Each structure stands twice: as structure tokens, then as C-alpha cells.
Amino acid sequence: MTFAVLRALHTILGDALHDIETVYATAHVPEPPSTHRKANSLSRVYASPPPSPSSSSSSTFDPTKSSLFSLDFPSLDAPCDPNSPAEQLTTHPTVVAAINRIVAAAGQMAATVQVPFLTLCDAGMGYHLPSCLRVFEAAHVVEVLRDGPVHVREIAASTGVEQAKLAHILRLLATHHILRETAPDVFAVNRISSLLDSGKHFHELVANPQNKYASAGDTDSSAVAAFVGLNCDELYKSSGYLTESVFPGHARLYPTTITAPDPDAQSNTKSSTSGSDPTRAPFNYAFGCEGVGYFGWLEGEGWTGEMGGGGGDEGVNPNQFRLERFGKAMAGTGGWEAPGAVLQGFDWASLPQGSVIVDVGGGIGSTSMLLASAYADVDADGSGGLRFVIQDRPVVVELGEKAWRAKCPELLDSGAVRFQVHDFFTPQPITNAAVFFLRVVLHDWPDAFAHRILLRLREAATAQTKLVLGDFVLPLACVDDFGVEDCGGVEGGKERGKEREPQVEGAEKMLAPAPLLANLGKASANAYWMDLTMQVTFNGQERTLREIVALALSAGWKVVRVAKAPGSLFGHITAVPVSVPAQRRARAGSGSAFFDVPGGAAVGTGAAEPAEKEIVERASSRCGTPTFGSRIHLPSVAEARARFGGGVTGRRPFGSGSGARPMPPPPPLKQAAVLTAPPLRKKKPSPLSAAPPPPSPSPNPSLSRTVTSPRQQFSPHHTSPIARRVTQAPLRSQPQQQHQQSPAPSPVPRQAPPSPLSPRNPIGRRSSYAHLSSAMQLSSQNHSHDQSPTPPPRLTHTLRHAPSSPVLKQTHHQHQSQPSPPSPVPSRIPALTRRASHAQLQFPQTELRKRSGTIIGPNAIRAAGSGGDSGMSTRGHGLGSLLLMGRPSGGALDFGVGRRKREDGDGDGESTDMSMDDEYMSRGPSPAGVPLGSVLAAAARIERGGPRSSSPGP
Ligand SMILES: C[S@@+](CC[C@H](N)C(=O)[O-])C[C@H]1O[C@@H](n2cnc3c(N)ncnc32)[C@H](O)[C@@H]1O
Which intervals carry biased composition (Low complexity) (predicted)? Predict the structure, then answer.
């Protein structure tokens, strides 16, 4: 039986590989320049027709004169070029689905055949991976390797990390395919590690490590480095204290750096309040800062300067570097949600004109921007289309208003959009909302708090009001008939008889049939990583559909629909008002219509228990800090349209779905849809396919037939048009299309273009696929240097001759101190006495001062990294501490709040706004608004009717 399962997994792998090859073979793209072709001749497989040797002799690539060729899948050994056609094809729906199956099947196969103890070793000692990755990132090794393979001797000399240790650290990463060891002790980046390149010069980073994540010119490339740095630092350390957090009484058993933070914790089995207190999460154990929320901590809340400083450092935010890194890291997580998915997540066009959408905890309103540019009416007084109210905390509202005023003042001026300061734990002031919309808000909060947020909305709802939640929907690891139509079967081995679960449109039993894990196992791991990240950081969580349904119901909302983009676990959940369960509600005399009765998981009204209110306030102190999953970039109207893939699906007369003329619901977005594509063609015989079909629990190797969605979106026919779109709808046709779809003055598309999520215009994990052809042309301009599969094995000249003692500057002219905005929430935290937790890799403030102006060279760095103990404690000034060295005392970096413009690089002399995310982060580094060469930049140019590339059109 096991062999049958293994054979089935093997077949899945072969089929999925075949699907990918087919897409790549049929997606014809213009031939790159001959120089490039030569450089990649080893890694590229040409399908018919082969490249014409005469077609591209010039170094400037002209797609109109080139012949067609097929793409190879991106090589693991070459640096990643996200704009290359090969990378962009990885967002093709068929490829996404196939990759998921491969990752799931390969993971399951390895788990099946590996010696169990070794699998436990892998799981149990996997903590070395983030440790090594952090050293790798903090020492800027990628920047050292940027120009090609380098001997570890040179890397050590440059970075100051002891050579012998570094070699082992890098080798562990190479063993996990994150790096390459091209010859003994010679290392090179590959497709994975190259993403960590900050785009800055190594010496610049050594001199000003605190600027690593600041935006540099047109690029925003340090976002991934920031994300990895964040994960491998405070989040990784927090995770190490999960057990202490769930068993607070165990502090007696594990007394290391822990004191019992929860006075209610009597024993290790007694449930305590710590599990539902966002300020007593594993993070708080790890960093010894109980009572301070993660974001408050990032903002320096409670810091007394006692840790090694002996006082006097009160004005310093010791976590300024981490704060800025967090902001940049959030800019790098846009791929979590399919762009434009919100448009398909709810039938916005069904709402009557003038309907009010309340974006609760809406940040700077980036999602509302997408919706407003499609559905608001700015022509008159704003009452013609949908109207939007974006609610958030005062500092965020201020930033949002500035951002909108700069980018699309007409939406504010017409009254179509307005901002409102509102604390979502207090009674909701808008009582005529058509939709309360919450995007990645609930995952920040434990159930009791999330319940309260929803209850406040329910109190203000009319009978017609809808609740729309945007969050990950975690699939169970087993088949789950919750919410699906034929439920009522077996759950946990017991018949539920006639008892029926609530029906939820879009609910799925599984993402994959047996023998794969029902939730696609490793392929879905990212959502679970995020789930635990929310848990260890502030006792928040991502939720399963069951949990979302139960949570919503507890506050009087019935979930009726879930919509997900193909290949994504991010869902838009629609709920309608129902009565609030009696045991959870009571009538309040004034203020809130309801309040939760004490004794339940949630209590509180606008006038909550003092202690509880304090928890809320502490946990809410997020000032202008971006939070997990928040959008920190406000798109321009043009960008917003670009994210639709050219327009908005189903732009219909307002009210058409809610009045006398009911409209069909919007096209469904189903996770399973990506799994439903039948094999594209007759499969190529696999070398091992001679084996008889396995008598597996699910013998049909074709995933598609087993999990066929009733509204299947991607069929074999849906692959070909993609290839055709690339080959037969060349760039020259796009100016016309764009022109028609985008009459310049109005932000509202007048036509209903194809759905951005339809098979003709699919949205992948990145926005790039929808604009593949434009991006191909852009990327082709860079071909001559960006796809060299194996960089020449040479040491970089600059590094060999690098000065051995780079100066760590204490100030930077671009980074003057700016006062932090005041917290909107008066801190009730008594000044904290920080314990010197080992997790807090913090340079003592007195040391920091002492070292001002000190020249720190590799030797000093080496000494710091290896001195004393591991170099990772507060005694030994480890490598991570170096990141904090040289910070101007109390200095915030420059966050240029004003609008800035930059040349957009297309030679048209126009400039592109790039300030919105700066404004949102306020005190965070400034990622570029529209990266040069990005798909969005291309779309923006097209929008303006500008040239698409330097190549003349036909
Ligand atoms: C993860 S972000 C989501 C932002 C936005 N919905 C988005 O998708 O980009 C959570 C938002 O909740 C806001 N927030 C936190 N506590 C709040 C409170 N008590 N009242 C209102 N908003 C709050 C934060 O300021 C932040 O903008």
C-alpha cells in the first residue's frame, strides 16, 4: 500500500512537471539578444521554432524583429530576475497549480521515505536555518557575492565573521539550496538567496548598516532582506517561547530568562488570561517586556534605558532599526494576496448607488483605493457611485488623508471618500453602512478582541448591511465538509445525523485529493507560518473557516460566502446580520446597543473593565507602524487600474443586484480551481510511468477530475489563450486597448473589461502575470546582464581591495532625527524594567554612546562576533548588535513625508509619485512607489499613453 501511495505521488510529480513544461513550451516569447542567448545556451531549451541566429545581432533587443522561442524554467543556480519572462510564467495559473502539487507531493514523499528520527532531527533542529540565514543577511553576504562566486576567506575578511564559522554557516544554507558552494569553500548566490540583495553596495552597508532598508533610488529591493531579517530575529526568537506562553506555570521548570508574567497563572494546566492578552504573547516572554504590545515595543514604549545604560537613555528608541525594518518588510509581502482579488471577493456592483462602504481599520486606504477607483463617482458630488469611509487610528488617518490628497484629491473633494478617526472597540458611528469591510484586521487579535470588533459592527448594522472580511482562510489538514453542500456526513468518526453545518458558498472539502494531504501540505505552509507568527507575536491568529464562522456568529454575523483567488489561501468572506446569540449579548443602557456578558471569552463595551481596557489600549498602540499584512503603499489611480488587469469585472448599474433586478453573483474564486485543470495534453511518457497505476486510495492520478469544481475556471483551453495572448496579442495592440479602457480624466473605467481573474486574464501570486507581455519587453531590456546562469568564478576586485576599516558613521545627512509622533493611546504602562533577555540582541546604550565615532573594522567586527560567548548575547557584542551601532542617539531616520518625484526612467521626462508609503510609515524607510521596470510602471506608462519601451512600435 505504501508503494502504491509513493507511486501515486510520483505520478503527481510527473503530471505536474508535464503541465509546467507544456506552459513554458507553448508560451512563446520574443527572442532575447544574441549575447544573452549565448550566455544562457546551457540552461535554455529551445523548442520550435529555434532562435534565428540573424534576428538579433544588436545589443538592443527589439521584440518586433525577433523570432519566437520557448522558455526554460528558471534555474535554481542563477540569480532570480523577477521581471524575466521565465519568472513571470511561474504565476501562470496552471504553473501555480502544478508547483503546489509538486511541493506537496515532494514533501509528502520525503516524509514517507525518510527515516522518522531524521525527520524529527530536521524539524527539531531546523532552528539553525533562521539562525544562519540571519547571519547571512546581517553580514550582507549577498552583496559580497553579487558579482560572482567568492572564496569564504574573502567573505570573512569583508564581513568580519570568523572564516571557519562562516564556512559552516554558509554550507548549511547551501545544503538547503539557499546558496551554492561552487567549489570547495567558494560560495555563490542562487535564485533564492539573490532575493536578499538590498541593491546597495557592500561598503555602503558596512558604513551605514542602519540604512540597509532605506529606499535607494528607484529600487525597493531591500524589502525581502527586511522581511527575512524580521523573521530570523524577533519573530524567530519569539517562537522559541511558545511553550512557556501556553504553560505559564512552567516558568518554574524553565527558569532561564523567564519570570512568570501572568499573576493569574497558578499551574501549568490552569487556563489563564495570558493566552488572550496580546501583550503577553511568546514575544513578551522572549524579550522580557510583558505588558507591552509588539508594535509599542517597536516604537520604544516602556524603554527606560536601564538595560546596560543606567538611565539617561529615555529618549532613545532602542528598536528604531527593527521598527524601520518591519515597515520595509511589510512592503515586501504584497504577494500574499492576489492583486485585485478584492474586486471579485464581493459583488460590489450589486450595491445601490450612494451605498456607504466602511473600511474598518483601513490603514491608509489602499484597498479602498482599488475599490474607489472602480466604483466611486467623482464626476458630480460623489453620490453617484459607492462612497467610502476609511476608519483608523488618528496617526494613520492623518497619513492616509495626506496620501489621498496627493494622489487623488478629487475623490476626497467630491465626498466620495473620507477618512474618519475611529477606535473599532468603541461603538461604530456609521449606522447606514452597506458594507463593513475589514482587511487583515481580525488576524491581529485574539478571539475575545476580534469578537468585540465584530459586535461593535453588528450593533451598527441594518438588516441589509454586509460584513466583508479579507483574511487567510486556513484549510484543515484533513478532508473537511464544513459548510459544503453535502455536509452532514462523518466528522471525527461520528455521525452527526441530521445536524447540518451552516452552508457557505465557496467552502471546499479539500484542496487536493488523496494521497496528497487535503490542504496541500507543504504547499500551504506559508499561511500556517503566518498563523503562528500572529500567535507568537500577539496571541493573534489566522483562522480556519470553522473558526471564522463561529467567531462571526458569536457577534451576530452569519458567513454565507468565501471567495479565494486561484492558488491563494487569502479569502474574502461575506457575512450577513443575524441575531446575536443570547448568551453573548445583553442590552446596554446607553452607548453600545449590546454588550458581551461577563464570563464569556469576551467582555466589554465602550465602557469596558478597566484592566481589560488597558490591555486593549496597550495592544492597540500602533501609531503609524504598518502591521502584518497591511498595505503600506497607496496606488495611484493608474496603478489601481493596472491591478485590475485592465479594468473591473462586472461594472454594472449600481443597485442591480439588490433591487428588483437581481444579478448573478460575481464569478467564484475558488482555491480548488487551480487544481481542476485536466491534463493539458497527452502526457509525455515518464521514464517511470511504465509502472502500473497504483491501487491507491485515490487511484486516479488526475487531480482535476477528482476535485472538479462546479465552476471550473481553468481548462485546457484556458492555457492556450494565455500562450496566444503572449504571442498573438503583441504589445502594439495594447495602446489602443488601454486607450479605450482608460479615458484619461476619469478614474472610473467606463467599460467592463474581462475579469482580472478570468481565464483570459488571470491573476497570479504576483501582479506580473496579468501584464506579462509588457513586462517581457521591459525585462528584455535587461537581458544582457540579468540571466547569466553561472556568474564567472572570480573574486570581486573591489572587495579584494576593500579598506579593512570602514568607518561606521554616526550620522547621515539624509537621516536627521525626527520626533516620533505621539502615541494616540496614552500609555498606561509603568516604566518597564527590562530584563536582559538573551533574545534582545541590543547594544547597551552606554556602549552605543561610547562607540560614537569609533572606527570599526573587520577585526573589531570579528571580535564582536566571536567574543565572549556565542556573540549573540548582551555581553558579547554580536554581529546583530552591529546593526544598531552607530545609530544617532534618539535619531529617527529620514522618512521624507513630503511628496517626492523621480524620473520614471522611460525617457519621457515625466515623473512618478513615490511618497505614499513613506507617508504611511511616517518614520519608516521609504520604499519606492513604482519600481523602475516593474509591471506597474509599465502599466502606468501605458495609462498615460506613453511609450512602452525604448523599442519603436511596429
Ligand atoms: C493589518 S492593518 C490592516 C490595514 C488595512 N486594512 C490594510 O489592509 O492595509 C491593521 C490596522 O488596524 C488599525 N488598528 C489597530 N487598532 C485599532 C483600533 N483600536 N481602532 C481602529 N484601527 C485600529 C491599525 O492602525 C492598522 O491600520
Answer: 728-743
